[in-house]
Structure formats: C-alpha cells, structure tokens
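User: Study the shape:
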Amino acid sequence: MAKAFFRLQKFLRRTQFLLFFLTAAYLMAGSLLLLQRTRLVIQQGSRGTSANQALPVPDGVAGVGMVDPRTLHKPSPRLLVGMDVMQEPATDQRHSPRWLVSRNSELRQLRRRWFHRFISDQEPMQTAGFKAMKHTAEHKGTYVGCFSDDSRERTLKGAVFYDLRKMTISHCQEACAERAYTYAGLAYGAECYCGNKLPATASKPEECNSECKGEKGSVCGGVNRLSVYRVEEMQAGARQRRNVIYRGCFRAPENLTDTFPASLIQPNLTVEMCSEFCSKKEFPLAVIRGQECYCGYPTGRFSLHDGADGLLCSGTHNAEGKYCLVYQTPVQDTRCTERKFLTTKSKVFVALSSFPGAGNTWARHLIEHATGYYTGSYYFDGALYNKGFKGEKDHWRSRRTICVKTHESGKTEIEMFDSAILLIRNPYKSLMAEFNRKYAGHLGYATDRNWKSKEWPDFVNSYASWWASHVLDWLKFGKRLLIVHYEDLKQSLIPKLKEMVEFLNMTVTEDRLLCVENNRDGNFKRSGAKQKDFEPFTQEMKDLINRYILTVDEALRGRNFTGLPREYVPR
C-alpha cells in the first residue's frame, strides 16, 4: 500500500512539472508570435502612406486631421491603405475563404490605424494630418495665428488661467471675454492668457503643436508659443453683467495723474463707460471723480485701506473733488501672478502645516503670489495641479519649492522639517470645510443628505481629536514655528502675510502685497448656495470639541504663543 502511494506521489510530481513546462512553453510561443506581428505592423506602417491618408472612421470623427472629409461624402467600394487593396465583401460571399481574407486585412488595418494614432500621440503632432485639424473645434472667436511667448516678458499680460486636464479653446475664450479682454492665447495645451494687445512676433504655424488637454484634435499653442484668437465681442446685455465690483468711496490722492497711468474725461460719464475704458487698458481699478475716469492699481499712494463715508462722494458733499468712487474691473491684477520653482535648492526645509479644512490651499495661493515661487505638497492632489499648483507634481523633498503643504503629525514626520508655519483654524469651521471637501470637492458644499447621515457624527468623533493632536504634536516636536490663525490672516491679510513671507526669509514690495490682496480669493471660494445659520453640531459634539479647544489654548499659552482667538471660545 505504501509502495503504491509512493508511485502515485511520484507521478503527480512529474505531472506538475510537465504542466509547468507546457505553460511556460505556451507563454513563450505567444510572446514570440506577438513580437512578430508587431514587427509586421510596424514594417507595413512604415512602407505605407503617411498618417494623414484616408482611413475608415465614423462620421463623428470627421475633421480630426487623419481623414479627408471628401472621402466621407462619396464612399468608394475600394480603400487603398499602405500597399493593401481591400475589396468590400459581398453579402453572398460572407462565408467564403475570400471573406475571411478580407476580415484579416480589416483587422490589420485596425492595428495599423492604432499604430498611427500611437505615433501621433508620442510625437509633437507635426504631421500634415494634424495641420488639417488645427482649428476645426467649434468656437466663436477668430483665429489670428501662432506667436512666440516669453515667460519673462509676456505679451498677453492680462488674466492667466490653468487647467491641465480640461482646457479647451472655447473655455479660454469665454474666460477672457468675461473679463473684457480682446485676445485669448493658449500655450502648452493647458494654459490660457488674456490681453488687449496682439503679440508682436509671429511664429511658424507648425510651432503651435500642443493638443488641448480637454479637446482632442485642437491646438492650444506649444512650448513658448501661443495660439491666439480674437475674442468675439460680447453683446451689450452680457457686457453689463460683467463682474464690476464697487470697492467704496476713498479720499483722492493729491495728484491723480501721477498716481494713475491712464485717464479719460467724458461728459455724462457712467460706471460702465469708465470700467470699459480701464478694462481695455488692462487695469483692475476704475476710479471716478465727477466727469473724470482714472485707471490703475492699488499702490502705496492709493492702498484702498482707508475707506470714507459714501455720502462724501456724492455731488453735494464732493464739490471740491476730494473724494472718488472706486470700482474693480473684470481685469485681473497680474503684477503678482508669475510664479516659478526655486533656481537653487532651499537650505531650510519649511512645512506649511495644518489640519485638513484649515485653509492650507488658500494660504498656498497667498504665499505663491507674494513670493513668486511655487509651494510643494506632501501629497499629490490632481485637482489642485490642474488649477495651476505646479508644485503638486514636484517631489516634496526636492527643495525646489518655498514650503511644503502637510497635514501630517507625529514625531517622525514633524522632525523631517527644519521649520514650519502652523496654520490653525476654528475646529467648528475646519470640520465643516473638510466634510464639504470630502463630499463635494475643494469648491463645493455637501448635501443635506450627507449632513443628516450617520457619517457626519462618526466624522466629528474621529476628526475632532485629530484637530487637537495635530496642534499638540507640532508644538511638542516642531523645531521652529510660526503660529498663524486663519481668522487673523483673513482679517489682517497684509500684516500677517508679510510676517509669513519674512519667516520664509523672503522680501517683497508693498505693491506686490497689495496685488495679492487684490487677488486674495483666487479661484478657491466655494460655489453654490450656502445655508445661512446652518448648525450641524449637536450638544454632545459641542461638548467634545470645546474640551479640545481648551486643551489647545492652554498648550499654546504654555509655549508663550498667543492663545486661540476669541471666536474659538466654547459656544
């Protein structure tokens, strides 16, 4: 019995080995066959016609550049592809050997078509076929041409937008039209620039060869190249809806012509007339005094910090012209929008640390525009990268960014940094902001259903303790800290931002800080309807959070830092 069992065991081992050998041989044979077929496809592709030759595609793909539209109107029974001639199979020959040959030829054609598409994606899209599809996308503006663009001295100096995933020609044109610009220029397939002056140096059409990230078959500039469109003039009703914001009544500077670079005197001057004039001149401020219109920027001479009573700007109270009305035009203040990576590696590794929902993204926006350098991130957030935070894709330890965003806590993670800006926000607001982000992204609001679900109390129980432990750990293990309260930064932006910039060992001009203040919100205000007096916290939740507030306040004061702001005081 034992002998028989031994023989069976020996047989099974041999069978196992045999199966393993056969499987390996089968995989090797398949690989060799695949390599041979791939080589055949490449040879046929190189032997055949160029990528812009007519290929059979659905009607919806017409005009994408690899198809001659004329062939789609009069389909021929014979299609020349490379060296092959493929007859259209007759219905009565469907099951004949000739039909099988035709089907194999059709499959080869599909593979060849894939190969050409693959090559066109990898190369900088300079084939003749791509030239044909340059400007076939549906948009309202007029294509002007391809122009050179120098990042150090941009021609289109107006608003700048990034969308590294969904940029289209129409999206860029609409954004520029809403802000009263005449021209829209696209570069690198994802960047949109606006302006009212056409670039001076034209380039060869083929140098604009970057496909739009959100629109296949359309060109959005190239490397240091702009595809420029003249934006279609908006209708009168649409112009009135442009975002012109009343900034207030202010005391006029002593010499208005020295303070403001452009001016206009117009009888029966209106706000719309002055705003349109300043928008065309690419200035973010329109200043009105009687029949006089002035255009410019917030500066040290005219900072917009000391507002006056609106009655002082009325005709009866302003006979001597000492006061003026100020409006924000749709034009973006671009004095502080250019950013880059550090040219040399930073010697000090600085963290921008906060609990999630405490305004870290907004603080990064302010720091980047104030210093002119990108901020990095311990994580990778594709949504932020797509909105222009290019430091998201840079390795967080590269030291090419001015500081690095992190939500981490714990001894090991904290001691990796030489210093840190610790951003603290009211836990009630932080918890709600993070819950909104979790269910509606960076700019949306969670629904009533989310707030009333079981997930909200679970979220509060777990995240409230994290809010406290995050601050306590950084106080304990942080080497050099600057404590910034979100509420203080919001209320006194320039003084607090100046303090943050100095902590980063940078110096900036007052005009640049005023530019940041003028662009303080950026693209990071939540959209949609916000519920007024919305209170999602139960008394049990409040008791829990209040205990953590007292603990953190005591720890801050124990380290000789300013305690938490008054609005944190338990409800």
Observations:
- Residues 36-137, 235-241 have pLDDT under 50 and may be disordered.
- Residues 2-47 form the longest helix (46 residues).
